[in-house]
Amino acid sequence: MPNQEKVTAGVDIGSSTSKAVILVGGKIASYAIGPSSVSPTKTAHLVFQQALSSAGIHREQVTYTVGTGYGRAKVEFADENVSEISCHAKGAHHLLAEVRTIVDVGGQDTKAISINKSGLVMEFAMNDKCAAGTGRFLDFMARSMGLEIKDMVQMHFQDGYPAMISSMCSVFAESEVINLINEEVPLPSIIKGLHKSVANRISTLIRRVGVENEIVMTGGVAKNNGVVETLENILKCRFVTLPGNVDPQIIGALGAAVIGFEKDQSLQSRTENAGNNRGTQQAQF
Amino acid sequence: MESEEDIKMEGQFRELIVRQREMADEWKSAGGKVVGHFCNYVPEEILHAGGVLSIRILGSHGHIARADAHVQTYVCKLIRSSLDMGLVGELDYLDGVIIPYTCDGMRLLFDLWTKNVKQGFVHLLDLPLIVKGDIGRNRFEGAVIQLKKSLEDYLGKSISEEALSISIRVYNENRALLRELYNLRRNVGGMISNIESLEAVLSSLTSPKELHSDLLRRTILERSKSTAHDEAAPGAPMVRLHVSGSLVTDSRYYQIIEDCGGLVVSDDLCTGTRYYWDDVKEDTHPLKAITNRYLDKLPCPCKSPSEERYQFVLDSLRQDDVQGVIFVLERYCDPHLYDYPFLRKKVESMGIPVLQIDAELGLSGVEQLRTRIQAFIEIVRGG
User: Fold this and answer.
1) Which Pfam family, an example, fits this chain (chain B) (predicted)?
2) What is the pLDDT of residue B9?
């Protein structure tokens, strides 16, 4: 089968949302995004099936599948699982060859990743044991103000100075928000303050790996322009935009599918090479 | 494949850890005393010579119930959780505790212990900050003599030079066996798992030494007989790692490393090489030899100078078989944390990737840790 028709898949089971990407000949054929559930195994099947259907591809046509994200070990039908750090790096590099720094802000954690020109991960920093500076923090705050995330993004661009939110801890930050509401501080100010708090937290992780251009933001929170703009101001840089309107939330799944595509190619060349007794040890992972 | 015999052998160090309390009780009902201690600066040989079973206190992985009323939460988990064990009565079986002046936290733990736990023989072992040179040596020699004297008073019997010499040999033998196991795990891939090698050291810290040496000897013999089997997953060979830090007491760290395809081949832990790397000289006056050993041994970062420790870490990596270094650093252990940027730079300049893990004895956030370790091993493998 020529590589142009090779079908590979990446399935990213995140803490809040799950994503699947189907590649045909290394190009995005379809993708799907859905909420994660208490059963990562079921979620994986569901989101995978959704992506397959929208590309009109049968499960049997997929030659290699890579699982990633928190539920990566629960993607039963995957040929292997790879950490989301490697996958986001691979996905971003696949779309933007000049990218050296990737900031993935997901539901449960934030990762700053630095890669070299071949797309290999050189270093990463990741929040641990605390959801400050993640999507979950913002979800939590939106809920306590009775808002949707999209309202928060919209209000971010209304007039007002950012209010001071000094707690990183979601629980303490919530009581600060309640205080601010009681003091009748306008919502856009509170929202800007929250975005600033999240952006500050993310920026310290990025500074740990170093800000090297070009820099791109991936993960669900990359869709929140309020956070993106605040973070750009803190870092004094501009994030590059993903080409062709690719959803930043699918970059991990995309990277997984790309790893599958490359793996599949190297398996192919290994089998081909085995025929003439040469180069059998090449292409080891 | 592992034979049934291997599997049986494999659980034996763990069994010693599980049976730790039971063994201490047996020791006591045979008329012996059981004394706990902290860090690896307490000359256990003296306790052994007095017929005392010495138990290294390693804190606990659980939540703190009572200690937080006495110490700030920015004191390390070893001190906080050990104090907690003392306060809630988990260590009531001990006839005493020896606390060395390794760091300020340990010194203050002594005061807290004296005031709030008060049990039997509670002793503060003075320890110099500068371990090289005559000033420190004279000071520590005095402290060792004083420890022996206080212990003799407590036990109501004297500890003879002959008994000390025997105990020195017993401890040296255990150290030699631990070193042999260490070298075997380094040289013979898959001979001993990450967890078993950790458990071999952890069990040595709390078991009667003769019993432990016997098990070590049998394990080494058994493993050397069976052909070395490489347990690497098909396709990808295990990534060889060095673990740097102070205490690793939660075997899940090593389990996750192994699950992700890593093999710990060397370490500089105080629950590792730092405990057994150096012997006590057998041809000199026992107390002098003991004094020298504990000052000249691989130092804790709390002590000065640090060069020897740096050299040991870097020499471990210079053997050309380590592909990555994982620093497991206890939160609020300033000396280890201060050393880290320097060591990290040195290691990276050798072209070896580094991962730092923030630890508080027992691990929390298993999945986050798994992601980080898996990503690190992917980096080491080059993509």
Assistant:
1) HGD-D
2) 61
- Note whether A82 and A182 are same-domain residues: no
- Residues in B touching A118 (Cβ below 8 Å): 383
- What single-letter DSSP state applies at residue B234? S
Q: Do B236 and A284 touch (CB under 8 A)?
A: yes
**Are A23 and A123 contained in the same domain?**
no
Looking at the fold, whether A118 and A224 belong to one and the same domain comes out as yes
Q: Is A280 a residue whose pLDDT tops 50? A: no
Whole-number mean pLDDT of chain A?
89
Give the pLDDT confidence score for residue A281 in this predicted structure.
29
pLDDT at B189 over 80: no
Please indicate whether, in this complex, the C-beta atoms of A84 and B368 are within 8 angstroms of each other.
no
* A103 and A171 belong to one structural domain: yes
Q: What percent of chain B has pLDDT over 70?
A: 94
CA dihedral A239, A243, A244, A245 (to 10 degrees): -20
Using CB atoms within 10 Å of the CB of residue A51, give its burial: 0 to 12 exposed, 13 to 18 middle, 19+ buried: buried
**Taking phi first (over 0 means left), then psi (-120 to 50 degrees means alpha), and beta for anything else, what does residue B206 get?**
alpha
Q: What is the mean pLDDT of residues A87-95?
A: 96
Q: Which residue of B has its CA nearest to A81?
A: B374
Token reading at A204:
């310290």
Of A211, A179, A264, A248, which is closest to residue A5 (Cα–Cα)? A264
Distance set, CA A274 to CA A277, B236, B249 (Å): 5, 19, 47
- In Å, how far is A124's CA from the nearest CA of chain B? 9
Please give the pLDDT value at position A245: 87
Percent of chain A with pLDDT strictly greater than 90: 78
Secondary structure element (H or E) that encloses residue B274, with its range = helix B273-276
**CA-CA distance, B137 to B98, in Å (whole number)?**
20
Tokens read off for B212: 């432990």
How far is the alpha carbon of A53 from chain B, nearest alpha carbon, in Å?
A: 30
Can you give the pLDDT at residue B8? 56
Into how many domains does chain A fold?
2
Name which of B235, B368, B375 is nearest A124 (Cβ-Cβ).
Answer: B375
pLDDT band for position A271 (cuts 50, 70, 90): low
- What is the per-residue DSSP string for A183-222? TT--HHHHHHHHHHHHHHHHHHHHHHH---SSEEEESGGG
Contact A69, A12 (CB under 8 A): yes
CB-CB neighbors (< 8 A) of A128 in chain B: 358, 365, 368-369, 372
Kindly report the CATH number assigned to the domain that includes residue A164: 3.30.420.40
Q: Which domain holds residue A200?
A: 98-241
Cα separation values, A207 from A99, A141, B317, Å: 16, 25, 28
Looking at the fold, whether A230 and A102 belong to one and the same domain comes out as yes
Domain membership of residue A202 (yes or no) is yes
User: A234 with A251, same domain?
Assistant: no
Reduced to 3 states, what is the DSSP secondary structure of residue B308? helix
What pLDDT sits at residue B224? 81
CATH of range B14-161; options 3.40.630.30, 3.40.50.720, 3.40.50.11890, 3.40.50.300: 3.40.50.11890
Over 80: is that where the pLDDT of A24 sits?
Answer: yes
| Residue whose C-alpha is closest to residue A257's, from A64, A71, A102, A98 | A64
Q: Are residues A114 and A221 in the same domain?
A: yes
Q: Confirm whether A149 is domain-assigned.
A: yes
Do A209 and A262 lie in one domain? The reply is: no
Question: Residue A23 above 50 pLDDT?
Answer: yes
> Chains A and B: how many Cβ contacts under 8 Å?
50
In a domain, A212, yes or no: yes
CB atoms < 10 A from the CB of A269, how many? 13
Name the pTM for this structure: 0.88
